[in-house]
Amino acid sequence: MGYCSKTIGEQGCLVTDFSNIYEKLTPKEMNNLFKKKNIYTQGCLVKWADACKLLRLEWHGFSSRPKFYPTMARVKTKSGIEHFVILLYRGKDLIIDPWDGRRKRNPYSTIGVDKKKLFCNVKKPVKKTMSKPKTRAEIVVENRKLRLYNRKLRLWVQNLKKKIKRLRIK
Asked: How far apart are CA 139 and CA 148, in angstroms?
């Protein structure tokens, strides 16, 4: 994994979390992409801002409290090993653990190496659904088209009513 002697299974929790949030690459593909684009530093450490920029994810820095959910959290296992999980909801109890890929209650201590860097605030950008505002000229053209369509529709309805009357007479 990265440029160190560890495997993704041994030290790939962060890369796995990135692949879970990104949703388009497996952890192995994410690792290869990170290597190709020089996202690793000091062997296996990830340059957070560079990784987010590469994957077009929003990077909101580290914090002592999550800025949103889901977010990545730095935790420690019972044996004291640093580990990264995806924290799903407020309350710190439901996570996706890259260790086994399952959603489960958080069995880990959320005491990171540095309490100010406990939560790693990464998320997919929200797709904006609103279109850009229309110009006055575009609105005028659109209104003309609607009036023309309404006129044609009224004429069609009138013709239809006339045909129905004729059918009733016979």
From this structure: 14
Specify the 3-state DSSP secondary structure of 71.
strand
Q: In this model, does residue 110 exceed pLDDT 70?
A: no
Q: Compute and round to an integer the Cα radius of gyration of the chain.
A: 28
For 59, the domain range is: 8-123
- Shared domain for 95 and 146, answered yes or no, is no
pTM higher than 0.85? no
Q: Over the range 29-57, which residues count as b (16 or more CB within 10 Å of their CB) and which as e?
A: ebbebbeeeebbeeebebbbebbbebbeb
Query: What gap in Å lies between CA 85 and CA 100, rounded to an integer?
Result: 11
The reply to whether 1 falls in a domain is no
Q: Is the pLDDT of residue 156 over 90?
A: no
Whether residues 144 and 119 fall in one domain: no
Same domain, 81 and 41: yes
Tens-digit pLDDT profile for residues 27-65 = 999 999 999 999 999 888 999 999 999 999 988 888 888
| Domain annotation covers residue 73 | yes
